[in-house]
Amino acid sequence: MNNDWPLWEVFVRAKHGLSHKHAGSVHAADARMALESARDTYTRRMEGVSLWVVPSAQIVASDPGEAAALFEPAADKVYRHPTFYVIPEHVKNI
Amino acid sequence: MYTTELEDKNKKPAPREVLVAEDPAKLVAFEARVAADEFIEPKDWMPAAYRKTLVRQMSQHAHSEIVGMLPEGNWITRAPSLRRKAVLLAKVQDEGGHGLYLYAAAETLGTSREEMIEALHSGRAKYSTIFNYPTLTWADIGAIGWLVDGAAILNQVPLQRTSYGPYARAMVKICKEESFHQRQGFEIMTVLAGGSPEQRRMAQDALDRWWWPSLMMFGPPDDNSPNTAQSIRWRIKRETNDELRQKFVDVTVPQADAIGLKVPDPKLAWNEARGSYDFGPVDWEEFYAVVRGEGLVAKDRMKARVAAWEDGAWVREAATAHAAKHVVKAAAE
Amino acid sequence: MDRALSDYAMRLGDDSLILGQRLSEWCGHAPMLELDLSLANIGLDLVGQATHFLMLAGDADRLAFHRDVLDFKNCLLVEQPNGDFAQTIARQFLFSNWQELQLRELSGSANETLASIAAKAVKEVSYHARFANEWVVRLGDGTDESRARMVQALEWMWRFGDELFDVDAQLDPLIAERIAVDPRELRAEWEARVTKTLAQATLDVPVPRRGARGGRMGHHSEHLGHLLATMQFLPRAYPGTVW
User: Fold this and answer.
1) Shortest Cα distance, chain B CAs vs residue C65, angstroms
2) Which of A20, B39, B303, C158 could link A11 by a cystine bridge, Cβ 3.0 to 4.6 Å?
3) What domain range is C136 assigned to?
4) What CATH number should be reported for the domain whose range is A7-84?
5) CB-based contacts of C198: which residues, under 8 Å, 6+ apart?
6) Is residue C39 in a domain?
7) Domain presence at residue C242
8) Complex confidence, ipTM
């Protein structure tokens, strides 16, 4: 039987202007406890200015078995990148 | 802190049979990825033996952090200055945090923290033998930081590149946070070694007692370490026990010299040809005895862990019950 | 240094020191790993505050490790044993809600050092109060067992609340100079806060009874002597040494 408090994923914004980044997980019985445990565990060294906690069970992840179908088709779309285009050398600021 | 490989030396490795049962094509692809230093992530295919070895190693590592809180925790209330008290409390808290990171990393493999804790309490799971030695004097807090954390750092640094992604990421965070642990220990030893005759005695006595157990932290000699080869192939381990042990001796002996303490090994001698120290034989009988649970305070350690867990059961249940009521209330509104 | 001011700084510092020492006893023994981290954080905040306040009063380590019971000026509440988790939470709940108000007012003290220590500490303590309030609610409105334990814990701690609001001859002149906070002015707000949380926890306010007091004058419960015996052991056993 599993009596563990549910698992929550913790995301920390390191400083204003940056995105929240996954830092780890905590067990907590409710959302406020999850925030507090995240604060006490993952921001003890001034690592953050903002926290998100998300129940781990709510995260939907892509299947590694489908990675080829999902991500490889992007590989040959070189025209999405600026280096694909030939510009005369004497033309600047483009 | 780090857990050594704790399998009984007489137990022969069995994973070959397990490997045979795996899909050969998947296995080849997996081995190739690992050999190329790619990271394996939770949902990726992995051989059952890899998963099992990882759960064992990571949970042992986590247990070691948690049990490791006890010997040092023994001195938090007696730390001799306000500064030392804050530092020690912060350090032991870090060990708890590291246990937490490691349990979470291990949970990505499908084993709950509660299951791992149950395995620890029932004696099925092991933790580092070093924590079954008692902390008798304040100098032991210095020796643990200096020697035990020093040994742990050598063990842990290579694990930042271990093949399992969540483990590697946890280790990056742990190594960063632990960088102050060894320094605070050495600082304590430095002050004691330069202090009153009683303090000097404490410092030397602590080095005498912690030196050999620290060497044991790297695990049995390579020719007696059943899983080393496979673990290295799988990048679960990156250097052998003996290599790491030698490194530890080489960096630590000059530190002891620097503060005028004597390493308790009559065979210790600088070997010019090897560019390393030769050192005397480790008492592996003692090591295996401690692994079997015969360490002086092994029973006390487990008793304290089990008591904390059992005494806390009503708190965990209360929070769960409160959260459930809250959900019902929210739904009714 | 003005005797009255150093006395006041010791009261503030001793409250934080003794409670920090108590919380540090939990380290490694909490009901859940996450709680180990939270309790240690609160303990660290308190030890830090104690250091600053005691430095204002004199040599902080000398004061922490070389005074005996009669010279400690903390309130009786903070020296009470941890007991079970409910008792620890009850103590924190009553104390942190008071300390937060006290520090908020103290951050406007005419003494700049006190004001700046308080301004930093009040942020720490507002988190302590939040943490304790939430746990009072979880335990009070949790299971039958947790409720019974929470009720019992509050019963035990409640009689130490009155002392937090006492004023004496030492404090009067400092209050007049606007250096010290007049704790009587905090009482109504404290009661409102505590009552609100207890209502959320579906708990009754404990029946008032004769308050236990004496800590500010060095007249403590028996628990403090044992706490000091542990805490002060090394500097006392090896006088004149540096650690």
Assistant:
1) 8
2) A20
3) 2-237
4) 3.10.20.520
5) C136, C140, C154, C204, C205
6) yes
7) no
8) 0.97
